[in-house]
Amino acid sequence: xxxxxxFTEEILQAGEGEDRHGPAVPVHDDIFEALGFxxxxxxxxxPWRVFRYRFPWLLATVGGGTxxxxxxxAFEATLARSLVIAFFxxxxxxxxxxxxxxxxxxxxxxxxxxxxxxRWFVTALRRELVTASLxxxxxxxxxxxxxxxxxxxxxxxxxxxxxxxxxxxxxCLFGLGVPSLLHRFKLDPKIAAGPITLALADFxxxxxxxxxxxxxLK
Length: 218
What we know:
Blueprint: H1 8-21, H2 29-35, H3 47-74, H4 76-81, H5 83-87, H6 89-111, H7 118-151, H8 154-184, H9 189-216
């Protein structure tokens, strides 16, 4: 995870330099497009106009977070029975968002030079499934070992580790599927894919996480 604010000023300066030498769109603009807006839309404009460009996409995150909060409320009894589930909730969501963002970035870059066909999608899906399974198993085993060593809770370790493994697979699939679908329908995957992908990844991660906990930790 990289804090964009650490190099925002350098990117803006680089973009201005490239604009002076030609009309080509800066590669650095991809970073901002994944967050929901074009770099040209905020360069040199008023704070109010920047707010208008950035705020609608934040509402997508607010909406997704609200749905996730309601979902967590539906499993309040499960959280009360096992606090270890609540302890690792932030990690589960963080891992899912990181993996979905990675998969989405790779897919968007690939779509620059590839057309979305069923053959291409099936090939990419197979490759992504293998990668997602390896990522899920790796992260799930590490987190399960942490839970086991820290809390000595075998069932909790199985629930958290297994949920992470399954949810990371779904996160990778969303990272591939959402940009591909938007590209197929002639929409801009760089602008819309980020908020949609992260919201879906969070929701399904919580569904898997809480459902597994409610079934195992009774």
